[in-house]
Specification:
- By secondary structure, the chain is mostly helical.
- It has 2 domains: about 300 residues, no CATH class; about 120 residues, no CATH class.
- About 70% of the residues lie in helices and about 0% in strands.
- A 3-stranded antiparallel β-sheet has the order 1-2-3, covered by helices on one side.
């Protein structure tokens, strides 16, 4: 049973469409103001082909045409040909490694006539969203089944692997957003808990150091085992507190190795105790988990010092240990970014009045650091307005997803919402030093035809699927 929806533009969700147009319009104005510092002497066709604002205007026109064409394509087309589109985008990722152009150390682009370029990884997000949704919407795909989980992860992992060969870690990171879809569709919690634990261990190792992180792991495990003793009382906790103080003292006075040895012996003793008291799983899980965690901490430390290249180490230090960075070197971008945003004050300096923007103090200010331009010229009010636009846009997509009767449509819309959220969070976060600088554009606002066209296609398909939400 199905209910017919208006064809073409008549069935679109106009709230989402209006938010899309608003972001695209703001993006073009910000790109225009970035280039305004050099003056616009070009007119007509020269303006379109030789300036960032002109090229972006052309790509906006092309994106809108493609958007409207998608609204007249039968909605079932996207589910039927999902794997074909996925395969084509994967082929593009392979071809770019062979015949692509290398820019800033990454072979990620096809050069096109007229000074334009194409980045396949942007379209791979669209193909992966379709393929993952098509796979999960089949009757045989139950994420409670290990085989189905591995197949879904393989769909996500293939583009990640190909993009890492470019190498472009920033674009590859975006594909982690698809785990939001897996979570919504019933992926068990343990894999997410493991992922969060690994991330916390990484952050702790980078900020607190190896010694204190290992001590923290042993402390948590020993406290957990002590709390599960059959006859635990206040004296046990007092002894635990004395032991912890002694371990910290060992670290402070240079006897950390002895402290770790004693802590490990305590952990083993508690595990043996639980084993003898018919709680073998508790002891085995705690001991194996502790050894794995310590191994991960040591591997993070080794990888950072011996495997990562100096510029990769700088990116992590800029994020987590800025005091170790050179203000005129690796830390320069973030400092200038914060200065530009802060200089805007509450109301901003006004459109076309950004001095730091005009004088090019912030690198990549029309692409990765476009939010700095917003902060300088539009101030706190403009920055909050943009953040609210994205928040409403993503929240609206979750509403659209939940009202779908078709599983494929629901999963695809969640996939696009996840991609938008990760892009939005990382891009704005890196301009303020909250996340590493990894070259992620701000959707619809950053300069770049590939990004704008790919996101427009993704949103257009969302609109089309939602307009047929009663179809099954």
């Amino acid at each position: 049973m199905s209910k017919r929806n208006p064809a073409g533009l008549g069935g679109l969700d106009w709230v989402s469409f209006s938010l899309y147009l608003s972001l695209v319009g703001v993006g073009w104005l910000m790109i225009y103001t970035v280039g305004y510092g050099d003056g616009y002497t070009e007119k007509g066709l020269d303006f379109v082909l030789r300036t960032s604002a002109g090229k972006q205007a052309l790509m906006i026109g092309i994106s809108l045409v493609v958007f409207f064409l998608i609204t007249v394509i039968e909605w079932k087309f996207w589910r039927t040909f999902a794997f074909v589109i996925f395969g084509f985008t994967m082929l593009m990722l392979v071809l770019v490694l062979i015949v692509g152009s290398t820019i800033k150390g990454a072979t990620s682009w096809f050069n096109l006539p007229g000074g334009f370029s194409l980045q396949p990884s942007e379209f791979a997000k669209f193909g992966t969203a379709l393929a993952l949704s098509a796979f999960l919407s089949t009757y045989s795909s139950d994420l409670a089944n290990a085989k189905a989980r591995l197949s879904a992860i393989a769909i996500i992992g293939l583009p990640i692997m190909l993009i890492m060969l470019q190498p472009d870690a920033g674009s590859a990171l975006i594909f982690v957003s698809f785990f939001i879809v897996l979570f919504r569709e019933g992926m068990p919690l343990p894999p997410y808990a493991i992922g969060v634990s690994v991330f916390v261990l990484f952050l702790s190792t980078m900020t607190l150091g190896t010694d204190y992180t290992i001590l923290g792991v042993l402390t948590i495990l020993n406290f957990f085992l002590v709390s599960n003793l059959k006859k635990v009382n206040l004296y046990y906790y007092m002894a635990f507190t004395v032991w912890l103080a002694a371990m910290v003292a060992c670290l402070q006075f240079g006897f950390g190795l002895y402290g770790f040895g004693i802590s490990l012996l305590v952990l083993i003793g508690l595990c043996v105790y639980h084993w003898l008291n018919r709680q073998p799983k508790l002891g085995i899980i705690s001991l194996s988990g502790g050894l794995i965690a310590i191994g991960l901490v040591l591997s993070v430390n080794y990888s950072f010092n011996n495997i990562l290249k100096p510029h990769q180490q700088d990116r992590l230090n800029v994020w987590l240990n800025p005091q170790k960075c050179d203000p005129q070197g690796s830390l320069y971008n973030v400092l200038q970014s914060k200065l530009a945003i802060g200089s805007g004050g509450f109301k901003g300096k006004g459109f076309l009045q950004g001095t730091l923007t005009k004088l090019n103090f912030v690198p990549e200010q029309s692409t990765d650091f476009i939010f700095c331009t917003i902060g300088e010229e539009q101030g706190f009010l403009g920055s909050v307005a943009i953040i609210l636009l994205y928040t409403f846009f993503i929240f609206r997509f979750t509403i659209l997803a939940e009202r779908q009767r078709n599983n494929f449509s629901r999963m695809y819309i969640y996939g696009v919402a996840g991609i938008l959220f990760v892009h939005f969070f990382i891009n704005i976060g890196m301009t303020m030093g909250l996340v590493p600088i990894i070259g992620i554009p701000l959707p619809f606002i950053s300069y770049g035809g590939s990004s704008l066209l790919a996101f427009s296609i993704m949103v257009a398909v969302v609109m089309k699927l939602d307009s047929h939400r009663y179809s099954i």
